[in-house]
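Late entry, written up from scratch paper. The run itself happened at the end of the previous shift, but nothing got recorded in the book at the time, so transcribing now.
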Amino acid sequence: MGEFEPGYIRLHRSGALARRIEDAGEILKDCTLCPWHCHVNRPAGEKGVCRVGALPMVASYGPHFGEERPLVGVHGSGTIFLSFCNLKCVFCQNYDISHLGEGREVQTEELAEMMLSLWRQGCHNINFVTPSHQAAQIIAALPHAIEAGLDIPLAYNCSGYEELATLRLLNGIFDIYMPDFKYGDSATALRLSGTPHYVETAREALKEMHRQVGDLVMDGRGIGRRGLLVRHLVLPGGLAGTRQVMGFIAREISPDTYVNIMNQYRPCFRAADPPMNRRITAAEFGEAVAIAREEGVRRLDGITA
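Output as recorded:
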């Protein structure tokens, strides 16, 4: 790629970012930031499904070396773990953050300083984990960070359960979208993640993300600069619906979508019932990879053969 400038810098320079921040703040007063549409007034202290109010709420931040290779590069992905989540997965491996709300409220300027700290440490991107319910707070922190020199891509690392109107508001702000596509059918999603209409919602969200940023593009070092990266966690007993997920990605998004098929499932939190009470087998993971190829997905993270 040529010299890279993140989209949020251009929006800030034009004045459009300030208008987006104002619009997002208005949404918080009758919150429809995510698909739950809680209609609570978060600036007035009301809280909905996500249990986060008007201020950003952060569990931790730091360089992360366990993400996909295009994110990690040499110096790591600058990861900010945001508290709570708009999904209620019974098997969540970060349940202390997503369910129990580990973390603390911070002022907008402090969130900006976290971004700047990660940038100064040489991280290749700022990676917001579970941003869906805090998107308004994130973008409100950007002007402070931009004016102090922030100039690396922003990554939106989410569950896939996204509100289209919010994604459209974020157009041009996030350079990298990193949604999960967790399930092939919504009945399983409702049972395991407590989320209605997950598949339909995620499909429309991925289409919008890809419309905004396209397939993942990397620089000469193999570090992601802009594009869509989809994660799919293989679940025991085929519960993730891998064939439906991969077929949709290949045919309705792009066969060149960068996909990470993940094998790290382990029973956590409330995953006590079979088959969720065991790890996946090597055969289950191998089958998922084979299915992705059969369905036409051509870019699989960490898999070359």
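The longest strand covers residues 224-233.
(Scratch paper discarded after transcription.)
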